[in-house]
Fold this protein.
Amino acid sequence: MRLDKYLAQAGVASRRSSKEIIAAGKITINGEIVSEPGYYVKENDLVAYQGMKIEKEHLVYYLLNKPRGVISSVADEKGRKTVLDFLLEADKQKRIFPVGRLDYDTAGAILLTNDGQLTYLLTRPEYEVPKTYLARVEGLISRQAIKTLKQGVEIENYQSRSTLVRVKEHNVQQKSSLVEIVLIEGKNQQVKKMFEAVGYPVKSLTRIGFDFLTLKGIKRGSYRELKIHEVKKLYANKKK
């Protein structure tokens, strides 16, 4: 296995950051500094980071149905609940971190893992990982607004990319609409800003899908471990 990938899978850092660590001469193999990310680590090699032996972690992958009012982080200086607060104590000890972010007031699907390489692949914009949202918006959204959203709208001097959008419900009594939207990019609060741009502010937002993964069978505040074939599928078709 390449050294940069070995470090990422050991939980030292992401693959990109691992390359920087290697280039800085902070990694030794069998007592000698190795500065090439492409060095092939053999089974019996002793790999150390700043003198500390690196043990490969057992990689774990969880899909959490995040409630609203929860921080997508491992800790919060204000003492607010984080996604880790919903894990069993034994799972918290595995140095888990969230893959990307969900806004404090947005609920839904978020991945938690100690696999730095997969985190890198799933969060880089060039890999275009689709994320599906359900937005409850104010007003009975028009066909023209849906067409505009599909084509892309300008938000803060940025043109959003074309996307999939469909109306799930028009609630005449509440004067609101339920709209499904799929994004392959992830600007800050992008979904909310897109709907605001066409005149339909978001009342509530839930991410119901991450790539091919859905929240089926996962109650709000609960999580499940991914199956091995799901992990392989997340890796599939991503650039190495």
The helical segments are 3-9, 15-23, 89-92, 116-123, 143-151, 190-197, 228-235.
